[in-house]
Amino acid sequence: MIKVLIVDDDKLVRKGISSAMPWNEFNMEVIGEASNGLKALDFLKAQPVDLMLTDLAMPVMSGIELMRAARQLYPELHIVVLTLHQDFDYIQEALRLGAIDYIAKVQLEKEQFEHVLHRIHTRIDELANTRRKLPLLSETNVHYRHVYALVSLDRKSGQSWPIELTSNVDEIRWEVERNSWMWTAPMDVEDQLFHKLKESLDQVPQVALLVMSDVQERTWSQIQNWIMNYTETSLFYAYNPYDPVISVSMNVEDSFPIEPQDEDMDRIRQSWFLSPWTHNDSYYNQLIEQFKSLRLHKGQLMGLLYSIVMEWNHLFAQTTLGRISMIHSFQSWYEVEDWIKQTSVGIRKADEQTSYSQEIVDAVKKAIMIMQNNLDQAFTASGLSQQLNISRSYFSQCFKDLMGKTFNEYSRFIRIEKSKEYLLNTTNTIFWIAERVGYTDEKYFSRIFRELTGLLPSEYRQLGRGDK
């Protein structure tokens, strides 16, 4: 009998899942409930549990934190994630931590109960069969030339395709982690194994075949951990859908990158906005290398790209320079670089639709970034045009044509927009805010603010907080 623990901060959810699902039909029994991660750990210490269903968003200790702790303390425990919404970032992290499945509570209807439990029970049986082999091999030294690993970049879905690759008697195969399998074989049948695995790449998209050398005298456990670490840190950047076979040496140590510094992120943002990377191959390649050199994890990279797109569209979406679209999902750096390439084409086309040279367009963009990054300073069209080596009158004309506002109108606009953020999101004084957006006279700032918004700063703050 599979002993089940249900962890959710909503008592009705716990009772509903416990009473409504046909546990007995699948040789399962709910033996306990917990309202948060800490109580779940206490329960796990008190009595054995085979399967834990846990919510992700809970007070005291979240489901992710619970999974990290349980994975260390109870490696044999099977975990299924309960989630209110299909938040794939959290689900992906949960699956990476060892969850064997997830259940979206909003989609859980009576007719699905049996299907869900059947899926979970089948998964537990598969893992049990795999684990029965591991004790015999985990601490055995490898004496083969290569180990092969089929690894899917999709860490969310459950895929059964590797199971269908039947092993002959000479092959050794087992599951490394979710959507990741490894094989080896004696030298006389190794080529046959390699070609069979290579052909299997066509069965599922976004799958890589790792050909691992320097495996001799290592244990299967060491190889398994190395594959998991490589998948976590390097596969994202190494994968190419047109050449999914990746040769790697286990002598090359692969570790998590150092946490990127704010100045590293700022350098990329400056290159995106200030260098002519959309029109110059050399600058384009430099930008790509800056991105890759940080070796950001997928979540960090998504956050950086999102902030760049948001900033670009905030500055240029309402101008002739156009907006750019965010990449909604990606599984590899190859997809990100393809998006950057397509984005550069779109920006270049927007620039070419203006009547000005690329040098003038870049100069106006640079002026915008200087102003945005130094709102506490007083800039003039005369001063910036001199800094950019353009005549004042021509700079003012170009600025108005490209940005849709005169230089002075735009300068006031961005300062007032920033002051709105301060008013709604801080408790700082009006004088403090005025200084931060380049106005040394609080009364003058308030007059400009009312001209553009119809309200005094204090009225805007009061009204905005009332809405909240």
UniProtKB/TrEMBL annotation:
GO terms for molecular function: DNA-binding transcription factor activity; sequence-specific DNA binding. The modification 4-aspartylphosphate is found at D55. The keyword Cell inner membrane does not apply. Residues 365-463 form the HTH araC/xylS-type domain. Keywords: DNA-binding, Phosphoprotein, Transcription, Transcription regulation. Pfam families: HTH_18, Response_reg. Signal peptide: none annotated. The keyword Chaperone does not apply. SUPFAM superfamilies: CheY-like (SSF52172), Homeodomain-like (SSF46689). Residues 3-120 form the Response regulatory domain. One of its GO terms (biological process) is phosphorelay signal transduction system. This is Response regulator. It comes from Paenibacillus polymyxa.
